Amino acid sequence: MKQSMMFIPTLREVPADAEVKSHQLMLRAGYIRQNTSGVYSYLPLAHKVLKKIEAIVREEMHNAGASELLMPALQQAELWQESGRWYSYGPELMRLKDRHNRDFALGATHEEMITSLVRDEVKSYKRLPLALYQIQTKFRDEKRPRFGILRGREFIMKDAYSFHSSQESLDEGYDKMFAAYQNVFARCGLNFRAVIADSGAMGGTDTHEFMVLSEIGEDTIAYSDTSQYAANIEMAPVIETYEASTEVKQELVKVETPNQRTIDEVVNFLHVSKEQAIKSILFKVDEQFVLVLVRGDHEINDIKVKNLYGASVVELATPEETKNILNCVPGYVGPIGVNEGVEVIADHAVKAVVNGVCGANEENYHYNNVNVDRDYSVAKYADLRFIQEGDLSPDGEGRIQFAKGIEVGHVFKLGTRYSEAMDATYLDENGRSQPMIMGCYGIGVSRTLAAIIEQHNDDNGIVLPEAVAPFHVHIVPVNAKNDVQRELSEKLYSQMNNAGLEVLLDDRQERVGVKFADSDLIGIPVRITVGKKAEEGIVEVKVRKSGESFEVTTEELSSKLDQLLGN
């Protein structure tokens, strides 16, 4: 492709509203342009990279035994109502009505759609297992779109779904997809980890996220410093044990704590440690109010609360609800004297707190010398806190460390969550009707592009791996008005195209400094500079990743490119 014919609107300055490196570079390199908040146009360079990523995905999906199809982005509400997610998915689901006042959603995901398709066509165990996938634009009404295409309201996704007649078959299909995902992200040149995850609104169990390691990641990975254990911090269980102090239990005392609401404020005011404090927070678990207790130096993990109750929705009680239920404002809530309509649950660490501190359910007051069983009761103990750095690894090997990650893929064992709700059944070997067992597997294709750039860049611009670069080679004549340079550049361009290389020829009437700056910015792996030695048949080759440059004759160029680009 000749650069004068290609739309690559590069920028010299960093856009003021671009917060992270990938967003900045994709704007500067002319990869994307924002249309509205969270919605972007993919310009020619980005589109070429996306197609490279999609090609890798398609190859690995084919190897895993999945067939490609394409489903509607516009989905009727009835399907989501069948599964129950029309009411529980939340405001991220983009909903609309047609001219006949019928409800629709723009596809955030396609579990309902694929389940309805398969249930209507597959009736026998003989047609199972079956794996189908698509690459399509998805829509989610993010409350706060940010980081460019890393968190947008419109994005490109590969979603795959598998249908099985047994758990063993699902496990086998899951393992194939897991391996396919590892191959996809490795081929894209990413440094990533597969981590144990929460299924969220998707439902199901046994899920893994594929996280690209990055300081700007919105997810925290908890991993062992000595083993292969890794999990999203939301899902990492705590296996620490706690022993209660042998100190004598003191008399319960109610103390005034004016304007002391937070744990830090209270412990400093009362001159006690955070380990002696009991943090009490009222949650609404579906329609039930639950008071959750953790030690003052710990944080409540609402995912663990949700999983403990098998709930659909867990959210903090509002200040108004807290006032109505506990007759108290947040900051002074505690477990003593809680009415019977509120269940009190506690993290295991709370059981070992002796002579602790908690809210008195009265504004500006706390209790000191609080002891469980004597002063308040707990309905159940469970692991309810976030794991912390330095905690024992859940696999018993080493200690936990944290890293930030960008989620680029997620695999789920859905089980019968959708097939039972939507009556997707088949006849087994004995002629009995059984619900299909399902798996679901997603890759954020456009997010993967941003994650690649987040990991592959330098001070001069994007440094793309060869497998996903928009072009293999960038030919840059120093002086496009020089006949010898121009003719040699055209000759090399033609030869490389005929050899199957993807080549960008910078034929623009620009200063050479502008051409070099743009070349570094857009991230093509190899640059060939045709300059003063063109008459001698000598060109300069520069490797974008290493910065290494050297001169070669045009006769040597082909074999040298084979070495640099891996044939």
Automatic annotation (TrEMBL):
Molecular-function GO terms, alphabetical: aminoacyl-tRNA deacylase activity; ATP binding; catalytic activity, acting on a protein; proline-tRNA ligase activity; transferase activity
EC number: 6.1.1.15
EC supergroup of this enzyme: ligase
UniProt catalytic activity: tRNA(Pro) + L-proline + ATP = L-prolyl-tRNA(Pro) + AMP + diphosphate
A GO CC term attached to the entry: cytosol
An annotated GO BP: prolyl-tRNA aminoacylation
Sorted UniProt keywords: Aminoacyl-tRNA synthetase, ATP-binding, Cytoplasm, Ligase, Nucleotide-binding, Protein biosynthesis
InterPro entries: aa-tRNA-synt_IIb, aa-tRNA-synth_II, aa-tRNA-synth_II/BPL/LPL, Anticodon-bd, Anticodon-bd_dom_sf, Pro-tRNA-ligase_IIa, Pro-tRNA-synth_IIa_bac-type, Pro-tRNA-Synthase_IIa_type1
Keyword Cytoplasm recorded: yes
Domain Aminoacyl-transfer RNA synthetases class-II family profile stretches: 38-465
Pfam families: HGTP_anticodon (PF03129), tRNA-synt_2b (PF00587), tRNA_edit (PF04073)
Cellular compartment(s): Cytoplasm
Keyword Transmembrane helix: no
Domain of life: Bacteria
NCBIfam families, per the entry: PRK09194.1, proS_fam_II
UniProt domain comment: Consists of three domains: the N-terminal catalytic domain, the editing domain and the C-terminal anticodon-binding domain.
Protein family membership: Belongs to the class-II aminoacyl-tRNA synthetase family. ProS type 1 subfamily.
Annotated function: Catalyzes the attachment of proline to tRNA(Pro) in a two-step reaction: proline is first activated by ATP to form Pro-AMP and then transferred to the acceptor end of tRNA(Pro). As ProRS can inadvertently accommodate and process non-cognate amino acids such as alanine and cysteine, to avoid such errors it has two additional distinct editing activities against alanine. One activity is designated as 'pretransfer' editing and involves the tRNA(Pro)-independent hydrolysis of activated Ala-AMP.
Protein name as annotated: Proline--tRNA ligase
Organism the protein comes from: Bacillus weihaiensis
Phylogenetic lineage: Bacteria, Bacillati, Bacillota, Bacilli, Bacillales
